[in-house]
Specification:
heterodimer; A: alpha+beta; Immunoglobulin-like; 11-stranded mixed sheet; elongated; B: about 950 residues; 6-stranded antiparallel sheet; 4-stranded antiparallel sheet; 8 helices; 63 strands; about 45% strand; Endoplasmic reticulum membrane protein complex subunit 7 (chain A)
Chain lengths: ~250, ~950
């Protein structure tokens, strides 16, 4: 009977402070949210609040859930965005808010066997690293899910800047415009040209153009440039992106 | 060198863009259907007349709000699985719904319009018995929850506990029901079976026990099933042995005995062996129940009775009647009764509850599905019409979990097939050719060619070509006709008759087997249910195995599927053979299986009717063949020495291999024992039979080839340690040759535990486990290679493989929990593979296999770059672009099925769980078809432009030449 009363008091207290959680200290909340089952294991209540700035809670809470370690424990959101996941045994959990529209950063919640709780940043690689986060949890939306990739659009500038097009257009211009600039029928000009041609041919020491190109491309610095350049406008953007994420992976 | 970099750039860009969805593709070839499961509680929102809400709580721990006009979901809350999320009770008052969850562990209140949680309270432990709304002076303010040994009262607006009391003598008395009338008291009724009833009165304000009494009732064994409270606090019980009703006023202090009323006095009799059921109704929790109630005497006999002044009056006798239910609108309560009309239809009629008079023109005809089950629940939504008469709609739930919502005079407003919330296994079958296509096929049949001469063949040819032309013209006409109509009016009705295989075989028939024993044939393109078949008498704990014995490729033989239904406890099985396109049961005689079936084996051997042979191995290692014609038996005798199979006995940790003998008995060849004291076998998987591997090896950076170890008989066996301590638990994997029993490879993941999900394909095994030390999921990949040269490149034989394969392994961190894992599958296996990972959030991640390559180098070298190997990174990336189902999340995804299509680039994917989602994935992009956004206009305008440019320049050149000639 007495135990029951205490439980009832605890319940009341927990309910009242969940309404205004910010006023309480971390430790206080831990004590209030704790329950002892007859088996002796601790069951706690993980609570917090999720916010999507600029969106009314009614518009997104119905399709969102609070998940602890997959769907081992499930909590639901109230219409002010606050949530509690009840009846959680001690352990370490990753809490995430799953919503098909909005994205939230997951949080790791540690619960000791005495029912003390702390929240920290999820780090799967250095699992023992502790960067504490405030508890009760403050989950802020970090944007919309970006499920789609944009279609490649076709524009004149893309078309004109395409190296293939450039390669075709420039010689065409040269063929068309050169005769206008200097008259080949002019004997003086012709002589000059012949001279320069002879000079080019006679000089055998000069490196071959193709060789020059291979050397140029094989130097490691120019990789990205060569790849992007030869792939043309379509491959340009994705390859740059790919490069960026590859760098990320190396980290 | 430069071209290499370019290639790398291309492949990396491909990789990142691959299998992402473009926004304009939404809904183009994918669909999702959402389900809720078997309805346990359903309440119509009668708060306002215009309300369309229908609140349901189901056995799948789902609490949802349906639109009663369309059957669509307003919102749905999926709680955790298992008993902890089980919904015990659903109560509704006004805009709020109160739900008791997890055997009375949680009390939740929901705001029903938005679907937001109002409050949640944790209750004390103790098994849940009953819950009721408690009203004070016409206002419902509290909810009372009765546990095995305690009762508590909670405020409806905040959930806070008003009081909680332990029940007196709770170890001897079983408290089962709770009742609250109008007089500020809560009655708790308990029973000592076959002895007496205990009634405890609590004061609502503070939980003080006002009165406690016990009443003799030696005949009673359970309160819940045989009693109800009617009128102003009269407990009414029924007993089939004494054939009588008993009444007791709950509040009166003087009456200490139940008053017996013989049913004979009313000329009634309970059918023998039937437990009579009492149904009363309490429209407003703040007021006492009505004095009218239903008494069910036999499965098809209901009676409407009235309790008045201590007497029971018969209002109406409904015989025969299947179901009866009360409904209230405003002040008027009606009763709807479903009675059989003829063999295929039932009629539902409305009666006024207080008189039993039939309302005129209120008949709803309910047509029963001949392939479905019987109706077993009736939910009635009554409403007041403008002329103040009572109108109603009904929702009927059948044994096969179909929800049908009907309105007068029998129009089906909507229908939901809730059996699909629990799909157990599925297959995809190619659609058949159309009549004309089949005609053409038939022309090339062998028999025809022999019988006919040359001339008839030519004529036949011409006629079939003519038919094709005709069909094409008809198709064109239809296209033209449809194009003229506005888009919305074109109805895309899909029926079996018009279904035929499309050009690329992208549209298939999905066969789904559900746990309730209902089979579905679903069109994969639109998700329309084309046929359904309910198999009656399926045990709830049956396991199913679906086998496609003959595909649609063997016209005129119909395709044939076999479903093996096996009782989990006894192991006894039965076969159900059907046509997967039409859902019709086949007339083929099926072998009876008198002994438990241990293993099934589908052989590539076909009988004269092109059906693959299915072998069933029983617990005495005897083999039954199906079909078992002479032809088949002859073939089996010839090939018996090369037919091997394996059996798994996880309770003894034993894997054993057998060979078939000529007389269809078997001989044991090998046995592998994995000691059960240390570890237990949790799963065994071979490779998929319809999988093709295109390339035999991988080209390395130095131009040598690393050949894959492609053993079709390889089994992957996953074990888990019996010791579950965090430090000592482990997950083991054995790769065992299924023919010789040789352990090809063995690996152990320490400090790991299940659940393990894994995929075994080509020359690799990918498995996921939980790393209990670092508390994260980890992927591990095993790849097997033969080395730089193949031992026998023409054929693989398990018996002759002297060299052990080289095994490479690498592990990665996966930063999310996992529900299920599957790999994509394509026609020829040229397309790169992706892993499809079902996440608990409902998303399906398409993870390139390239990231799970044990040859990923830690240090990038020239060679690894040439091979397009991604440098090793411990953490696996999860990109949102890889979610193939964008925001169409699949709740509780339990399985993913992949099937190849006619296009090499395309793999068909079906994810099932609580929901079903179908889509197509293109792991290496759509390289064999033009892209969706292919710019036809640009290409044609360029072509025309060039054409005209040449014409004009030609003309100009001519003019110029002419002018020059004149000069």
């Amino acid at each position: 009977m007495c135990r029951l009363c205490v439980a009832a008091l605890l319940l009341l207290a927990a309910a009242s402070c969940s309404l205004d959680v910010k006023l309480h200290d971390d430790e206080d909340e831990d004590e209030d949210a704790m329950f002892q089952t007859p088996g002796g294991d601790v069951r706690v209540r993980v609570s917090g609040r999720a916010l999507v700035p600029g969106v009314r809670a009614q518009d997104w809470i119905a399709s969102a859930r609070v998940l602890l370690d997959g769907d081992k424990h499930v909590g639901f959101l109230r219409d002010d965005g606050s949530f509690t996941v009840s009846d959680v045994p001690s352990g370490s959990y990753v809490l995430e808010i799953s919503s098909p529209t909005y994205r939230f950063q997951p949080v790791r919640v540690d619960i000791t066997t005495t029912g003390k709780m702390r929240a920290r940043v999820v780090n799967y690689i250095k699992t023992s690293e502790v960067i504490r986060l405030p508890y009760p949890l403050q989950m802020r939306c970090i944007g919309l899910h970006s499920y789609f990739i944009p279609r490649e659009t076709w524009g004149w500038s893309d078309f004109l800047m395409n190296p293939m097009v450039l390669m075709m257009v420039l010689p065409l211009l040269i063929i068309l415009l050169l005769p206008k600039v200097f008259n080949p029928s002019d004997p003086e000009m012709r002589r000059e040209m012949e001279q320069s041609m002879n000079m080019l041919n006679s000089n055998q020491e000069l490196p071959d153009v193709s060789e020059l190109m291979t050397k140029f491309f094989s130097s490691p610095k120019s990789h990205g440039k060569a790849g992007g350049g030869a792939r043309g406008h379509r491959g340009g953007a994705p390859s740059a992106r790919g490069g960026a994420s590859r760098r990320k992976m190396k980290d | 060198m430069a071209w290499l970099v370019v290639r790398l750039a291309i492949s990396v860009s491909l990789l990142y863009a691959a299998s992402a969805v473009f926004e304009d593709q939404v809904g183009k070839f994918d669909w999702r259907q959402q389900f809720i499961g078997k309805v346990r509680f359903a309440l119509f929102d009668t708060h306002s007349q215009a309300s369309k809400k229908l609140l349901v709580a189901t056995d799948k721990n789902v609490f949802a709000s349906l639109n009663s006009r369309t059957g669509d979901l307003f919102w749905r809350h999926v709680d955790k699985t298992g008993p902890e999320g089980h919904i015990d009770a659903l109560l509704m008052y006004g805009q709020d719904a109160v739900v008791v969850v997890g055997n009375g562990r949680l009390l939740r209140s929901w705001e029903t319009t938005v679907g937001g949680l109002k409050w949640e309270t944790v209750l004390d432990t103790g098994s849940f018995q009953a819950a009721a709304l408690v009203g004070v002076q016409d206002l419902v303010k509290y909810v009372a929850v009765l546990k095995k040994s305690a009762i508590s009262l909670h405020d409806l607006s905040s959930g806070s506990q008003i009081w909680g009391e332990n029940l007196p003598d709770s170890d001897s008395v079983q408290y089962q029901t709770i009742y609250s009338g109008e007089n500020g008291l809560v009655f708790v009724l308990g029973i000592v079976p076959n002895s007496h009833i205990v009634i405890v009165e609590y004061k609502i304000e503070d939980g003080e026990i006002m009165n406690k009494k016990s009443v003799e009732a030696a005949w009673m064994s359970s309160l819940e099933s045989s009693c109800a409270v009617v009128s102003s606090g009269i407990l009414l019980c029924v007993d089939q042995i004494t054939q009588s009703l008993y009444t007791l006023p709950l509040q009166s202090a003087e009456q200490t005995e139940m008053r017996q009323i013989h049913l004979q006095m009313l000329d009634l009799e309970v059918a023998s062996g039937f437990r009579p059921v009492l149904t009363s109704t309490q429209p407003n929790p703040a007021q006492p129940p009505l004095s009218e109630f239903f008494l069910q005497l036999s499965p098809d006999h209901h009676i409407l009775l009235q309790f008045k002044d201590g007497l029971i009056a018969l209002l109406r006798d409904f015989s025969p009647s299947y179901l009866a239910a009360f409904a209230t609108s405003g002040e008027r309560t009606v009763a709807a009764v479903m009675s059989p009309k003829n063999d295929t239809a039932c009629s539902i009629n409305l009666f006024s509850a207080d008189t039993g008079r039939k309302h005129l023109d209120t008949t709803i005809i309910y047509h029963m599905d001949p392939n479905g089950g019987k109706p077993n629940r009736l939910y009635v939504h009554a409403f007041l019409k403008k002329d103040d008469s009572v109108g109603y709609r009904v929702m009927v739930q059948t044994e096969d979990l179909t929800l049908t919502f009907l309105q007068q005079p029998g129009r089906v407003v909507w229908m939901r097939e809730e059996a699909l919330a629990d799909v157990v296994t599925m297959e995809m079958v190619d659609l058949p050719f159309t009549g004309t296509q089949a005609e053409l096929e038939g022309e090339f049949g062998k028999k025809a060619a022999i019988q006919d001469g040359l001339l008839p063949m030519v004529l036949k040819r011409l006629s079939s070509q003519f038919i094709l032309l005709q069909a094409w013209l008809a198709h064109l006409w239809k296209l033209f006709y449809d194009a003229r109509k506005p888009r919305s009016s074109v109805k895309h009705e899909v029926t079996i008759d018009i279904l035929s295989r499309d050009e690329f075989n992208l549209q298939k028939m999905m066969l789904m087997v559900t746990a309730s024993g209902k089979l579905f044939g679903i069109d994969s393109k639109s998700g329309t249910i084309l046929w359904k078949q309910y198999l009656e008498n399926i045990q709830p704990n049956s396991v199913f195995k679906l086998i496609v014995q003959r595909t649609t490729a063997h016209f005129p033989h119909p395709p044939q599927c076999t479903l093996l239904i096996k009782n989990k406890d006894t192991g006894l099985g039965s076969l159900y053979v059907f046509n997967p396109i039409f859902g019709k049961k086949s007339q083929i005689s099926v072998p009876t299986l008198p002994r438990p079936v241990l293993q099934t084996l589908l052989l590539p051997v076909i009988d004269q009717d092109y059906a693959k042979v299915l072998l069933l191995i029983d617990d005495q290692y005897k083999v039954t063949a199906f079909p078992s014609t002479k032809n088949v038996l002859q073939q089996l005798q010839d090939t018996a020495s090369s037919i091997f199979f394996y059996l798994v006995d996880s309770s003894q940790g034993k894997l054993s291999g057998f060979r078939l003998r000529k007389d269809l008995s078997t001989e044991l060849i090998w046995e592998v024992v994995i000691p059960t004291e240390v570890q237990k076998i949790v799963a065994v998987k071979g490779k998929r039979a319809n999988e093709h591997v295109h390339s035999q090896g991988r080209v390395m950076g130095d131009r040598s080839v690393l050949y894959k170890y492609l053993n079709p008989n390889l089994l992957a066996v996953i074990t888990e340690s019996t010791d579950t301590h965090q430090e000592r638990s482990f997950v083991g994997i054995f790769l065992i040759d299924g023919v010789t029993g040789r352990i090809v490879h063995e690996a152990v993941q320490r400090k790991a535990r299940g659940p393990v999900h894994f995929v075994h394909s080509e020359n690799w095994v990918v498995y996921v486990y939980w790393n209990s030390k670092f508390r994260r999921n980890e992927f591990s990949v095993l790849e097997l290679f033969e080395g730089a040269e193949l031992y026998n490149s023409t054929v693989f034989s398990s018996l002759d493989r002297p060299h052990a394969p080289q095994v490479l392994q690498q592990s990665y961190i996966f930063p999310a929990p996992i529900n299920t894992l599957e790999a994509t599958l394509t026609e020829k296996g040229i397309t790169s593979r992706h892993l499809l990972v079902g996440l608990p959030s409902g998303n399906i991640l398409s993870l390139p296999k390239m990231f799970l390559d044990p040859r990923r180098p830690e240090l990038v070298s020239e060679q690894s770059r040439e091979e397009n190997l991604i440098p090793y990174a411990p953490e696996m990336p999860i990109r949102e672009e890889w979610f193939i189902n964008y925001n169409q999340t699949v709740s509780r995804v339990r399985g993913i099925y992949t099937a190849p299509s006619g296009l090499e680039s395309t793999c068909l994917v079906v994810a099932y769980g609580l929901d079903i989602y179908q889509t197509r994935v293109f792991p290496s992009k759509q390289f064999d078809v033009l892209k969706d956004d292919y710019d036809y206009i640009l290409i044609s305008s360029v072509l025309f432009g060039l054409f005209f440019a040449t014409m004009i320049s030609k003309r100009l050149a001519e003019v110029k030449l002419l002018n020059r000639a004149w000069r």
